[in-house]
Design the sequence.
């Protein structure tokens, strides 16, 4: 059987939390999105617009109130059971008592892979993220950037066709972040992985993505999709005119139909590249325990 051409399909998706109660929140409304196999999609939008909710729907960590979510041609529930995706959050969410190697082995262990195969695959993944020499370290002995690379290695360990990432580089310094962006693109290209990447950084979205999906809050919905055509990213990309054009387009889309000058033209500021403000994401505290979906830290063998 050949893999389906469409990696992810959301159709008419609404998500209402606490539906029917006085504290009901419409997090997403009317979301239609189709992601091709091997495509890299960035999700961007103001805090609370439903980015994490969208990702959690694709991961089947929550269910839509209406509409359908399809992953690799099957219902999201089945795709989760078949481990069609790997997932990484802002917090690396590593298990402190396990070595780096055994953290990466975990999803393979849960999937019932034998010890030798597990070890070989985990070592291969650590090689891929440049951490082969740290396999026997514990997470606390690594920098934040290195921990995040371990989380990526773990997410990729089952060779998932789809990678879901929720602000995975949000807590890192700018230089580490740029290096990891390049590494991620290299890994995705080498493995043919499709990716949904949530970020609040406009340059990060433009640098990484084939398409930037722009969302707005209250109620959360997709307001624009900006195609990015920068070809293979190189040292020069971040200084290229195409990069800045992409940034300008995404920023304009984020502003939406805003103030217009007396002549009627859209006012767009293009001067500075502002790194997005850190987001007090409501999901942040919860996210760590979901780094391996459905597994509470207590439940993991030491
Ligand atoms: N489990 C939940 N229960 C109630 N409301 C929630 C829950 N998760 C998210 N929300 C609300 O849904 C909206 C979207 O949240 P979220 O997807 O985390 O936004 P983002 O990731 O874009 O910052 C917010 O208003 C948030 O408060
Ligand atoms: Mg979020």
Sequence:
């Amino acid at each position: 059987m050949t893999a389906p051409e469409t990696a992810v399909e959301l159709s008419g998706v609404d998500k209402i939390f606490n539906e029917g109660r006085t504290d009901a929140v419409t997090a997403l409304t009317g979301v239609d999105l189709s992601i091709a196999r091997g495509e890299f999609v960035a999700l961007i939008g103001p805090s609370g617009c439903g980015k994490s909710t969208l990702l959690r729907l694709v991961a089947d960590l929550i269910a839509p109130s209406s509409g359908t979510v399809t992953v690799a041609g099957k219902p999201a529930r089945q795709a989760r059971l078949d481990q069609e995706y790997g997932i990484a959050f802002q917090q690396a969410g590593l298990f402190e008592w396990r070595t780096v190697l055994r953290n990466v082995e975990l999803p393979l262990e849960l999937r019932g892979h034998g010890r030798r195969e597990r070890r070989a695959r985990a070592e291969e993944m650590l090689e891929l993220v440049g951490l082969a020499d740290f396999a026997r370290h514990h997470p606390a002995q690594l920098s934040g950037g290195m921990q995040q690379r371990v989380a990526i290695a773990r997410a990729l360990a089952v060779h998932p066709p789809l990678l879901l990432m929720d602000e995975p580089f949000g807590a890192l310094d700018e230089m580490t972040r740029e290096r990891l962006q390049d590494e991620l693109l290299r890994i995705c290209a080498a493995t043919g992985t499709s990716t949904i990447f949530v970020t609040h950084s406009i340059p990060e979205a433009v640098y990484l993505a084939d398409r930037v999906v722009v969302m707005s809050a209250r109620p959360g919905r997709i307001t624009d999709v900006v195609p990015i055509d920068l070809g293979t990213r190189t040292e020069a990309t971040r200084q290229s005119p195409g990069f800045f054009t992409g940034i300008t387009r995404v920023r304009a889309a984020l502003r939406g139909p805003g103030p217009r000058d007396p002549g009627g033209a859209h006012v767009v500021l293009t001067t500075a590249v502002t790194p997005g403000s850190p987001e007090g994401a409501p999901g942040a505290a919860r996210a760590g325990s979901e780094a391996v979906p459905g597994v509470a830290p207590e439940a993991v063998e030491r």
Observations:
- The chain has nine helices and ten strands.
